Amino acid sequence: MVKADRLKYSRKNVWENAGEGTMQEIMAFAEDYKTFITCAKTERSCVRQIVNMALASGFIPIEQCQNLRPGDRVCITGKGKIVALAVIGQQGLEKGICLIGSHTDVPRLDLKPHPLYQEEGLAFFKTHYYGGIKKYQWLTIPLALHGIVCRADGQTVEISIGDRPGDPVFTITDLLPHLAKDQMVKKLTEAVEGEQLNLLIGGLPLQGGDKDNAVKMNMLTLLHENYGITEEDFISAELEAVPAGPACDVGLDRSMVGAYGQDDRVCVYTSLRAILETTAPARTAVALFVDKEEIGSTGNTGMQGRFLQNAVAEIGSRMDPRFNELAIYRVFAKSIALSADVTAAVDPNFEGVLEKLNAARLGGGVVVTKYTGAKGKYHTNDANAEYVAFLRNLLNQNQITWQTGELGKVDQGGGGTIAHMIAELGFEVIDCGVPLLSMHAPLEIASKADIFECYRAYKAFFGA
């Protein structure tokens, strides 16, 4: 008779089984991660870090490669916002590839094309929020401004204000509780309107200027003195208001990381580290870092673009001159993938939204999510049982702590990832990532243990 403890499934906790050596590894990995995510405040800066780390690890821009052989390491970039790193496998592409796809974009506030105005002696920037946010969370917190401005003279200027020591910060004001009677009875979705998310940027007038525009003109003067830009240059700019400050430890025990943008840059970093440490995979290993996931994966830098197809074509043509478009889809049909994205963890303060039996916990390890979507599994990839079994066995064989998760109760809401777009290309794919508390908030919380197990899972996958 089989023993009862072998029949029953039991959840595991990474910390409970971690020895002193593993604890040190977890903490050291988290320090490197905090450094990365502190500097990755925009998709452009995130991609820049990815490329710099890849080049330092021996990856070569594919334009510099005429022929590719097993073990070669190549980097393919597009528009400064999307990148693929590949390690050529021992087997040919006809055996398929191992792909891990994550996204670099995060919820934020974008400056409008005509952002600058003056009202009541104060200067503001108008913004348009990007992705799913709770608007009230962005009021009265320190904000930084990052991005680029393409000037009329053809020069591109990078702007970064609010994250260096001594920098000023910006903020969005809120109504004092003494006068907020009408605001306080509104629904949370209505208490703050999108057009109220105006960034306070100054209050000092230009001496001798027109009183009605003196503060605005002082802001334009300062911007021109420091960056050479004019008001019209905002039309050709990508400037993002994001929470100011570095990633930090959370808790007396420092067991968690608090940072802006962990959805999905925690999976970006863990898959990046995994591909950098992959040397001789059986199948060609590809780490894909895409843009625009938070708004539907649209555009030429999103997953719905053709960047992945083009990247595989670039690789294939350097391995076999006869490689063509039909070959691309034959490769995809034999390929396996992980959609590397975060999921919700049980929060004891908000227990009602998750079904506990199938929800992820902080400290429970990397999360495998068979399906996402909403209500009746709409708009999702639903991984087949054979592929779930493959991943389950891979994680168990490598003694990686893992758990399953769902994105909320069946009728509560839901969400999606890039998994269904990868599946449409022919891949076997499943979601696999880190559980978070306060997802999409200006400060998101992840367990250092889960981050480390996610990195180990991705590394094992590339070696499968």
Automatic annotation (TrEMBL):
Give this protein's Gene Ontology molecular function annotations: aminopeptidase activity; metallopeptidase activity; zinc ion binding
Output the InterPro entries linked to this UniProt entry: Peptidase_M18, Peptidase_M18_dom2
Q: Which GO terms describe its cellular component?
A: cytoplasm
Q: Which cofactor does it need?
A: Zn(2+)
Gene3D superfamilies attached to this UniProt entry: Aminopeptidase i, Domain 2 (2.30.250.10), Zn peptidases (3.40.630.10)
Please state what class of enzyme this protein is: hydrolase
Q: Name one GO biological process term.
A: proteolysis
Q: What keywords are assigned to this protein?
A: Aminopeptidase, Hydrolase, Metal-binding, Metalloprotease, Protease, Zinc
Look up the domain of life of the source: Bacteria
Q: Its Enzyme Commission number? A: 3.4.11.-
NCBIfam families (UniProt xref): PRK02256.1
In which family does this protein belong, per the annotation?
Belongs to the peptidase M18 family.
What is the name of the protein in this document?
Answer: M18 family aminopeptidase
Annotated organism of origin: Desulforamulus putei DSM 12395
Q: What is the lineage of its organism?
A: Bacteria, Bacillati, Bacillota, Clostridia, Eubacteriales
